[in-house]
Amino acid sequence: MKSKIERIKNLVGCAVMLAGIFFAICPLTCGAAEAVDLLANEKKIFAEFNRDFPADRILSVAQFKTIVDEVNAGERQAYLLDLRSSNEFYTFHIEGADNIHAGHVYTIPRYISDPEAEIYIYCRTSHRAFYVAHFLQQYGYRNLRIVKGGMVAWIKAGYPVVNQYMGKFVASFADFDRDYSFDYKETGKYRVREFHPY
After folding, report:
1. What number of other Cβ atoms are within 10 A of residue 50's Cβ?
2. Taking the CB of residue 42, how many other CB atoms lie within 10 A of it?
3. pLDDT tens-digit series, residues 107-159
4. If DSSP codes are grouped into helix, strand and coil, which group holds residue 35?
5. Is residue 112 within 8 Å of residue 79, measured between CB atoms?
6. Domain chopping of the chain, boundaries
7. Which CATH superfamily is domain 45-172 in?
């Protein structure tokens, strides 16, 4: 009769052997998982969307400023469609702009039913705009433009923005390249913030 220790050793040995067989066979039967570079894939898709959008329909902020002025003066019928989130939009936006979050691109046909409508889309940097443009073209919109550089380029150019608290104003930077950062984190000696975002 085997001792209790010998039985445990045998069970552990069997478990190790079965695990070894499983891990030896699994890549052959389960298919080895390929490494996926998700960031590289996103960049590739974004580059395709950039390439597929007509270059003559990408406007500079200077060109867009003229259109904004014409729309706000009632001289032009066009949609100035800000694709940023509602929080971004209500912090400040271009006077006369409409707002639909890029993630809600599927709702745009509910609000703009004319495929020939003159539509200018932009976001913070124009990254989201190229994604949205891809879908809007597939939906059938034919008179679509992207504002290159988005709100960052608009602010950098010194053009005015509005919000409900301050009215119309121009945001400024002492040194844009130093003061602006995609990874900006506010530092300071604040003591109480109810909904601090970071």
Report:
1. 16
2. 11
3. 999 999 999 999 999 999 999 999 999 999 999 999 999 999 999 999 999 99
4. coil
5. yes
6. 45-172
7. Rhodanese-like domain (3.40.250.10)
Q: Is 148 in contact with 158 (CB distance < 8 Å)?
A: no
Helix (H), strand (E) at residue 121: strand 119-122
Distance CA 144, CA 81 (A): 10
Encode pLDDT of 182-194 as tens digits.
666 667 766 666 6
3-state SS, 36-84, equals CCHHHHHHHHHHHHHHHCCHHHEECHHHHHHHHHHHHCCCCCCEEEECC
Residue located via tokens 């509005």: 162
Residue tagged 């580059």 (tokens): 47
- Asked whether residue 47 carries a pLDDT value surpassing 60, the answer given is yes
Spatial neighbors of 133 by CB under 8 A, at least 6 apart, are: 49, 53, 121, 144, 146
d(C-alpha 176, C-alpha 174), whole Å: 6
Can you read off the two tokens belonging to residue 49? 């969307």
Give SS3 for 23: helix
Which tokens belong to 68?
A: 């904004």
